Amino acid sequence: MAKQRRSLSGKVVAITGGARGIGKATATALVRKGCRVAIGDLDLALAEQTAAELGGGTIALSLDVTDRDSFSAFLDEAERQLGPLDVVVNNAGIMPVTPFAEESEESTRRQVDINLHGVITGTQMAIQRMRSRNSGHIVNIASSAGKAGVPGIATYSATKHAVVGLCEAVRAELRDTGIEISCVMPVPVNTALMEGVSDQRAVKRVEPEDVANEIVDALELQRFDVFVPRSLKFTITAANLLPRRGREAVARFMGVHKILTEVDNSSRRAYEERAAHSRSVDEGAAQEEEPKAEPAEKQRDAA
């Protein structure tokens, strides 16, 4: 028997990194469903512009996911203005592209702080707020890179593997609590994060709206594994049945080893510089904190 879809109308949603990219697309889709949305972003001016465009009572708030006090203040204000949170979407993330041996310590720490610690903080705070009501839904944006290591983004892959593991463990802890969790794992998404990255024959990008639509579906049907596109689930399952050499051969055939090692450095420089000086940014587009360069990164000129 097919699952009954639940209505999202009137649900209160908080989205990190919601000013653009996947965050903005998700906010847009949820507003259309009748949700009351708070978008948190380091770039408050852009977040306010996005909120005004979306309408539907959408509010914009300042947020740095690497700062626990900032995160708490974001959720507090969202609840003060909109009501108790029904959904928290942990979307913020960055993806610098560089050979692992050349990655700076600052870049490594920044990726772990934003991509992993930010998701951990958001998940913990969401549970604490939802537990007394025995209801709620947490959506964590991971990546297909959380299921397989991708050359050129080793640390990013590590953080996304960690997010997948976090979701699986927390799902078990939340069993019978009434709180749901979803783990979103898209292939490369057509946002600023993929600037300068060439397409490969067997790895087709998806649009932010594709990810947003799957998030809506996961909320309505209470799905945990959210692969984008859905066919990715079968690709990963089939690959895991092969021995390691077989999996690696398939990955090479698909061009996975080239996706983020053969990039147009000049086209990517703007994103890399923004990511190098960001604290809290959208998975699809790093936000600028200061207009200065990152010398240690070697700018291969991010999940």
CATH topology: Rossmann fold
Mean pLDDT over all positions = 85
Architecture in CATH?
3-Layer(aba) Sandwich
Poorly predicted sequence stretches spanning 5 or more consecutive residues? 284-303
| Overall 3D shape | globular
Order of helices and strands: EHEHEHEHEHEHEHHHH
Round the Cα radius of gyration to an integer and report it: 18 Å
Largest sheet: 7 strands, parallel
End-to-end separation: 36 Å
The CATH class turns out to be Alpha Beta
Structural class: alpha/beta
CATH homology superfamily name: NAD(P)-binding Rossmann-like Domain
Helix coverage percent of residues?
Answer: 40-55%
Q: How are the strands ordered across the major sheet?
A: 3-2-1-4-5-6-7
Continuous helix count: 10
Strand element count: 7
Strand content: 5-15%
Tally of structural domains: 1
Structure description:
The chain is of the alpha/beta class. The chain has a single domain, classed as 3-Layer(aba) Sandwich (Rossmann fold). Helix content is about 45%, strand content about 10%. It is built from ten helices and seven strands. Strands 3-2-1-4-5-6-7 form a seven-stranded parallel sheet, with helices on both faces. Helix 1 (about 20-30) crosses helix 6, helix 3 packs parallel to helix 4 (about 105-130) and helix 4 packs parallel to helix 5. The protein is globular and about 50 Å long.
